[in-house]
Amino acid sequence: MAKLYFIGAGPGDPELITLKGKRLISEADVIIYAGSLVNPEILKYGKEGAAIYNSATMNLDEVLQVEIEALKAGKKVARVHTGDPAIYGAIQEQMDGLRAAGIPDEEFEVVPGVSSFLATAAALKQEYTLPGISQTVIITRMEGRTPVPPKEKLSLLAAHQATMCIFLSVHAIEKVMETLKEGGYPGDTPVAIVARATWPDQRIFRGTIDTIADILHKAGVVRQAMIVVGRVLDTDYDLSKLYDSKFTTMFRKGTDEK
Fold it and tell me: 1 or 48: whose pLDDT is higher?
């Protein structure tokens, strides 16, 4: 049956794709993958004879043309995106383009994947939501060619001083750090940057808002890196109530239960 699957391939390690994503790639007649970011090892899951397109060399109209022609020919299509396609994945414009071409919603599906901001937490061996420190994670980016709505400016988000994961911005690291300070983060706020999380050449850098730019410049990192900012990276915190022996839950009785 003709169907298109938008598949999150995960952050880099080919074993971090979901079982469903791997299976669908192995069954696909056509594979369109984001070659600028998706690990090409993922293509080894495809079947012999599958048509393969690298969307890094294509524009939206060209991608849609391949997708629509394949669906009309009764083929199964794997549209493979890096990380999770719902975050900076540019899938909405593809789905709307399919609808505009008369493709019903029943003929395409989104398969989630492991986002790089979560792979970064794993690489850092770090929880983003520590009791007493931060219970909020802000996912954002620095304004570039893609504008940011005025109410989502980095300086305004910084006022919360929550844990912040900043995509697609490492090339402008000085500006990012300056903007965070303008927004309220102190200069000694911890910062961690993971370049190419889960890839064999993964690198981790740690510093503060005041120091991380120099550290990163010396390392020559300008792309494919996640910026994490917040006190969760280096501070004491309260223990979770989830496993507190005094705390009663629906599954166990705590010592606070009379």
Answer: 48
